[in-house]
Amino acid sequence: MGTDTGLRPGLEGVVAAETRLSHVDGNGGRLLIAGYPVESLAPQATFEEVVHLLWHDRLPSGAELSALQASLTARRTLPPATLALLRAAAEGGCAPMDALQMATATLRLAAPAPLGIEEEARLAVAALPSIVAAYWRLLKGREPIPPDPRLGHVANYLWMLTGQAPTAATVRGLETYLNTVVDHGLNASTFTARVIMSTQSDLLSAVVGALGALKGPLHGGAPGPALDMVFAIGTPERAEPVLRAKLAQGERLMGFGHRIYKVRDPRALVLQQAAAQLYDAEGDRGVYGLAQHVERTAVALLAEHKPAAQLQTNVEFYTALLLHGLGLDTALFTPTFAVGRVAGWSAHALEQHRHNRLFRPQSAYVGAEGRAWPYHPETQIAEVAG
Ligand code: COA
User: Fold this and answer.
1) Is 311's C-beta closer than 6 angstroms to any atom of ligand 1?
2) How much is the pTM?
3) Which residues contact 139 (CB under 8 A, 6 or more apart)?
């Protein structure tokens, strides 16, 4: 063909939507959540306050916050069919993200149809933690724990996972994590949600689609490998030789580098500080110190190894450390990411719904030309073979 088709593989550099929800400044290393710098909002706000901010573009009054909390609390209990599906999935040893995606599709059984877009948003945000926690317990051969209406959204998630009253430090740590990852521009799962909404489909379908996109290792894929790397290094003296050997073998260091951020991902700092507070309060400070040493060593070696690439710490590195400090198994890392990101997906879905334009990009055709009917199997075989 030879002419410029305007093709942008992966839509890199294409601006496909306007949003007031978050601004990712990759060169400046800044992230705004509805106007607030992530480093001031995430460690101070409750998750419910951030949900209100995203849905209504302002923080709630006291009465609005109480109303939102009550509406989420009322939607935490899973329909019996959802629980039955989770039991069957656990018997089959299904991966937690697969179970979460399947179960989310059944949430419309929670109320008579049609639910309406705002109701679906409340349901999705309220019920995802219940699904993750119930499934995790079933997978471990234990019974799900019913939600506790006296607890806030984040404390209740920890309660349903562990059956133990969470400490203030643990709740704050997880709240900061969920706020930090709540929204991040037009990432793959958010884009998926907006594409689905743009067909005037429903919000639960958008969330189910977004979960499918998040599952992939190039997106929500586990920060588990970053944690494994720190544990495999084990002691500070081993950091440099182990990391040098990995780079010499052409391996990528997990938790470093980003497609958009060319400076340190601002979320890494927020999560590092949250991890420091948590490990100070109740964790193994040795693990935190080791991780910091591994980070410093990795950034220095990457600068030597690929000076032009500007490889810095990304969100995954301290996500791993923080969630591990909170006592979460690595298999829960991506589902817990979804528990936070669902607030962003639902807000993007509402935004798309209000200012809709059907997503319909074009493709550049690179297939055959001039094929003609009738079809002769022998000729066709000869053509393929030739
Ligand atoms: N360790 C070692 N080398 C790395 C690296 C890493 N973590 N990240 C990038 N590089 C290298 C690449 O191999 C490439 O080298 P080359 O030019 O010789 O091929 C160079 O740096 C430039 O990388 P680039 O192509 O700009 O990266 P990308 O935009 O395709 O990839 C990531 C971004 C996040 C996928 C990539 O940095 C990576 O794989 N990081 C490790 C996995 C990870 O932490 N993922 C979570 C992301 S939030």
Assistant:
1) yes
2) 0.92
3) 90, 93, 96
